[in-house]
Design a protein that fits this description.
By secondary structure, the protein is an all-alpha fold. The protein has one domain: nmb1532 protein domain like (Four Helix Bundle (Hemerythrin (Met), subunit A), Up-down Bundle). The protein contains 9 helices and no strands. This is Hemerythrin domain-containing protein. Pfam families: Hemerythrin. It comes from Nonomuraea corallina.
Length: about 200
């Protein structure tokens, strides 16, 4: 649906989170090697955790509070649901990490935990896209929306050099060009010359 606010970065990030949790699920389902050993050493798992946590905490700290004084009771219920879904998803990251180092029971727990993580994340992203984005668009002004984006970028911090190529991993040239086109020329050049090549050299899983 068309939005008044620019939701392109939010939607690209959601797609990146879907991509990564599916990659993690494929590793957890491996039978020929110990998936715990693979994930414990995987740059991809670390990046996924870091960027998901930044996204959820910035929504909880900045986005939802900015909306609470301006929405109806139904809107408040939706914001409560968004926070509850975060609260159910985020501890699963720690539970997966605990399974990775649990020599006695971790192997038996890992697949179920990753399945719960994937199911919860997919459901949350669908919910946010079907209902949450429309509420954001109807509630926030451009200044408040920009503040959320700036805070999110600030929390990414020095990891921007990895975040941007991670975000665009697997995206079509058209989507990548559209997103990069909104960035300063110096950032686009750094992405092309340094950040993307360094990302491509990572062993993600």
């Amino acid at each position: 649906m068309p939005y008044r606010l620019d939701m392109s970065m939010m939607l690209v990030l959601h797609d990146a989170l879907r991509r990564e949790v599916e990659r993690v699920a494929r590793v957890a389902a491996k039978t020929g090697d110990d998936p715990r050993r693979i994930l414990a050493a995987a740059a991809g798992w670390e990046l996924f955790k870091k960027f998901l946590r930044v996204h959820h905490t910035t929504e909880d700290d900045v986005l939802w509070p900015a909306m609470r004084g301006a929405v109806t009771a139904d809107g408040l219920a939706l914001l409560d649901a968004m926070e509850d879904e975060h609260a159910a998803i985020d501890p699963l990251l720690d539970a997966v990490d605990a399974a990775l180092v649990d020599r006695e029971h971790g192997a038996g727990r890992l697949a179920g935990l990753v399945d719960a993580l994937a199911t919860g994340l997919h459901g949350h992203l669908r919910h946010e896209e079907s209902d949450g984005l429309a509420l954001i668009d109807a509630t926030l002004g451009q200044e408040e929306w920009s503040r959320f984006g700036q805070t999110h970028r600030g929390r990414i911090g020095d990891d921007l050099t990895t975040y941007l190529p991670w975000l665009l991993d697997g995206r079509t040239p058209r989507v990548a060009a559209a997103l990069l086109g909104n960035l300063p020329p110096a950032v686009r050049e750094a992405y092309r010359d340094d950040w993307r090549p360094a990302y491509d050299r990572l062993t993600l899983y």
